[in-house]
Design brief:
This protein has about 290 residues and is an alpha+beta fold. It is built from 9 helices and 11 strands. The termini are far apart.
Length: about 290
């Protein structure tokens, strides 16, 4: 029988010998077992050799290289070629809302299909508001001669309108719970922000996240397997955790094993980790933002 073979890398451990696979292998459900531990993989089967590891291990195609990030454009910068047919994702490297869309783009394997255009939010170019997005916020997405905004809408749009592995489950019960968690996000965010301004942290705020992560047992993520829900929450928890730990002496993972496991698993997903900022940067930003109000 004819066979295919793939080479891949796991956590910087190179497996130089290709694994022979039957020519009729169903890549959409492909999985491997190493050291008695099974690592499920979701294969991007739309003519692309990238492998997206969801959720247990970060796997990338051999020979792949980290994307070179362009510098942020400011008031002195010339605009890119607007409405030239190339999809563009306008972001700020420091904005958690923009980070959501950046993660979604990466998880879909669209680094070569959607161009990143970072904006300096402290010195925004006039052309961004005048020619691209009148709301003058990030993120925004230029696609099919239109510009769309709002991060929660954009991660859904990117998932639905571009090729790559689906980031939303087919299971009706998981889809329903996902909608609940999308709706809950604003309440969660406001509750945490309020606690950052006060002397006492409301345990119930992060207890609710622990409870949500306990609903499905087929993985460490909100819906069991990695999804848009994880993308929606990750940039904010990434910022809350170091500030609360250092300034409030509050460990959000203490007594919350599901949340601790979720953070650990998120940090094994390269599509997410390449978008992260230095925790010290988050810490300094939040100190300037909140400690001055106390």
């Amino acid at each position: 029988m004819a066979a295919w073979s793939i080479g891949y890398q796991i956590h910087s451990i190179n497996f130089s010998s290709p694994i022979p696979l039957p020519s009729r292998t169903d890549f959409s459900s492909l999985s491997f077992t190493f050291s008695n531990a099974k690592y499920p993989i979701q294969w991007n089967h739309i003519g692309c050799h990238r492998i997206c590891a969801l959720p247990a291990v970060s796997i990338m195609a051999s020979g792949s290289s980290r994307e070179v990030l362009p510098p942020a454009l400011d008031s002195s910068s010339e605009p890119p070629a607007i409405f030239d047919g190339t999809p563009k994702l306008y972001i700020s490297y420091s904005c958690p809302y923009a980070q959501r869309t950046w993660i979604a783009r990466n998880c879909k394997g669209l680094q070569e299909n959607i161009k990143l255009v970072p904006i300096d939010l402290k010195n925004r170019p006039d052309w961004y508001k005048e020619k691209v997005y009148p709301a003058n916020k990030v993120p925004s997405l230029e696609h099919n001669n239109e510009v769309k905004g709002e991060s929660m809408d954009l991660i859904r749009y990117i998932d639905s309108n571009f090729e790559g592995p689906s980031l939303f489950p087919d299971d009706p019960s998981k889809r329903e719970f996902a909608e609940e968690l999308f709706s809950y996000f604003d309440s969660f965010y406001k509750a945490v922000i309020s606690s950052l301004k006060e002397d006492k942290i409301n345990d119930a705020t992060f207890d609710s996240i622990e409870t949500a992560l306990s609903k499905f047992v087929d993985g460490s993520f909100f819906l069991g397997t990695f999804s848009l829900v994880d993308i929606a929450y990750a940039p904010f928890i990434e910022r809350f955790q170091p500030f609360l730990l250092e300034v409030k002496n509050y460990d959000i993972t203490a007594g919350r094993t599901k949340l601790a496991a979720w953070i650990k698993e998120m940090n094994q997903i390269e599509a997410y980790t390449v978008t992260k900022r230095d925790p010290k940067e988050h810490l300094e930003n939040y100190k300037r933002r909140f400690l001055s109000q106390l």
